[in-house]
Amino acid sequence: MKTSKLFADRHLTVAEVNPNLFGGFVEHLGRCVYTGLYEPGHPEADGNGFRKDVARLVADLNMPLTRYPGGNFVSGFDWKDSIGPKEKRPRKPDYAWDAMEPNEVGVDEFVKWCQIANTSPLYVVNLGTGTPQSAQECVEYCNFPGGSYWSDLRRANGAEKPHNIRWWGLGNEMDGPWQICHKNAEDYAKVAHDAAKMMKMVDPTIKVCANGSCNPGLPTFGEWDYTIMDRLFDVIDMLSMHIYFNGKDDDFPFFLAAAERMDHLVESAIGCCDAAAAHHQSRRKVDIAVDEWNAWSRAKSEGNQETKWQVGRSLVEETYDLSDVLVVAGAMMSMMDHADRVKMACIAQTVNVLSLIMTRPGGPAWAQTTYYPFRMMSKHGRGGIVLRSSQEGPTFEVKKIGEVPFVRSVVIHHPEKNEVVLFAINRSLDEDMELQAELGSFQLECVLEATELYHDSIDAANTEGNEMVAPASIPATRLTLQNNSLTVSLQKHSFAMVRLALKK
Questions:
Q1: Is 292 a catalytic residue?
Q2: Half-sphere exposure of residue 370: CA atoms within 13 angstroms, side-chain side
Q3: Closest among 23, 28, 31, 27 to 58, alpha carbons compared
Q4: Which of 151, 171, 150 shows the shortest CA–CA distance to 160?
Q5: How far is residue 15's CA from residue 286's CA, in Å, rounded to a whole number?
Q6: Average pLDDT over every residue of 140-145
Q7: Could you give phi then psi for residue 350, rounded to 5 degrees?
């Protein structure tokens, strides 16, 4: 068995893992909202029409925030259409996804869903067809206590207390040529600057994210990010970046190298932020939000042409298998390795669309394979301190990247729990790997938990009534503990988590 070696020490740290790294995303796209989280008449529907089975699965992920309502959808969406009595709300074509939007779920309803799903909104304003004034009015509607037109309208609509939405997105993917009212960097920077200023006039406590690059393959990558940072440096709180990991069918090694692709995205964004800070002669470190990311290789966004202009038409429903577990876990490890600057992330999406959770209309909800690494890392990674580590071992060749290690891992120290957590993936398709983790000045007491996600077939997926990939215990025979060293045998194409108690 080949060996990979990891070296980490309690005195060499990166930063604490921000809980907002484990955010979700709900867009009015496909069946994410309609027959996803919202399905009046379903046996599990509550009084507001939200599926309790879906809310329970989301709540178990402990997502501190959920980005909403889009996505490409938001660039042609007027938030005012989705408030007030439902019977008076207009049905409008959604030109981003060739669907019909009934506006049955709006900001007031979404806030109610957040309360039962154990999350909070990151609300994205429309800077495509929308204006800075409309964005300001949205903040006033949501956050102003009362006594103004928009806040009193909110109260009349049943929300007496302000929603107090803290995080706001300044449009969506405005660098993308596919976007409704796509803009160049200078034009977007001007409208986003005006919107941020006007929104903070209403509520100076809010935080705003500006659009960085939505695709590292675009010709404007890097140039766009620096321009946005330079023009918005004085008004924004984070720069958002998007990335989807593709290549499953045509370049599988590149697909598996998601962690290294995330490294490149994040480090490029940090460079642009710091270059802008230097230009402004400032020591301020602007943080990164990867607020739309996931594996996406096979599902098509066009959908069946016969379903055009229908509500909740099936779009972008990817069935995730074990290889996607390696991709999602690897990307999360990368963000943890950059925890000093990556302070927020939103996996796309939460339900049915490139999702952690799937549903059948009128039927059950179930967890996809990628649900489990996200849940494990959310539960045992957040709040801990990432250790700066180095690793050596066997590698595989990836075009455009070079040599990539089969085994990638990250170590999290929880001082208050007197515990260390190791997350690791083995990306070899046919060989088990031994991981030897030398943990510096730690004195290891015992193994608290050792769990893995594995199936003999890397194509194994979870479908309705058939869960093929789920957490299972790693046998003690595959673990060795000695003073400050852990050795664990990682099965081929698997994800593992080992929690270690430290000697007091």
A1: yes
A2: 31
A3: 23
A4: 151
A5: 15
A6: 98
A7: -85, -40
- How does strand 485-490 pair with strand 479-482? antiparallel
List Cα–Cα distances, 173 to 19, 319, 499, in angstroms. 24, 25, 38
Q: Return the closest-CA partner of residue 404 out of 499, 263, 248, 225.
A: 263
For residue 376, what is the enclosing H or E element? Answer: helix 371-381
Q: Give CA–CA dist 108/291, Å, rounded.
A: 22
pLDDT in tens, 226-284: 999 999 999 999 999 999 999 999 999 999 999 999 999 999 999 999 999 999 999 99
Beta strands in 197-298 (DSSP E): 207-211, 238-245, 287-295
173 has catalytic annotation: yes
* Domain architecture of the chain: domains with CATH: 2-10+386-502 (2.60.40.1180), 18-381 (3.20.20.80)
Amino acid at 483: N
Choosing from 39, 173, 260, 452, which is the catalytic residue? 173
Q: Catalytic: which of 27, 140, 292, 419? A: 292
217 has a pLDDT exceeding 90: yes
Task: Work out the pLDDT band at 300, boundaries 50, 70, 90.
Answer: confident
- Angle separating helix axes 322-337 and 371-381, nearest 10 degrees: 30
What percent of the chain lies above the pLDDT cut of 70? 100
| Residues 4, 434 contacting (CB under 8 angstroms) | yes
Residue 28 class from Cβ within 10 Å (0-12 exposed, 13-18 middle, 19+ buried)?
buried
Reduced to 3 states, what is the DSSP secondary structure of residue 71?
Answer: coil
Report the half-sphere exposure of 82 (CA within 13 A, side-chain side). Answer: 20
Rounded Cα distance, 355 and 328, in Å: 12
Beta strands in 9-146 (DSSP E): 13-16, 24-25, 66-68, 92-94, 99-101, 121-125
